[in-house]
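Journal club side-thread
Mid-discussion, someone asked how the predicted structure for our own chain would compare to the paper's figures. Pasting it here so we can look after the session.
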Amino acid sequence: MVAHLPLVEGLLGRAGYALSGGEQQAVSIARALMTAPDFLLLDEPTEGLAPLVVEQAGLAIARLPQVFEVGVLLAEQDLAFVTGLADRVVVLGSGRVVWSGAASDLLANRDLVDRHLAARAGAS
């Protein structure tokens, strides 16, 4: 597990309460992968993380399907993070699907982004 999730290696001797939010996320993902799941649901894996840690998390998450043969579903509000990783994006509004398709198609649809994601889109 450590070989595939380098963020975890430096955490092996540390207590859980001494870990940052990003480190806790990495340990949570590693712990979930230890059960050899077919599928992972990652609920806002970037929440509260520093930008550098978000970048590292994105690289690690991008490798999960190939390395662990696991499907990954991200529930995430960071549009740039999602569109950088996802093959397919589903936009929800008031609990309903308002759009689904390729990440590149979403980014090309500025009206949709402005209408449903503008508060979260930032500079995307």
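Post-session note: Residues 77-124 form one domain.
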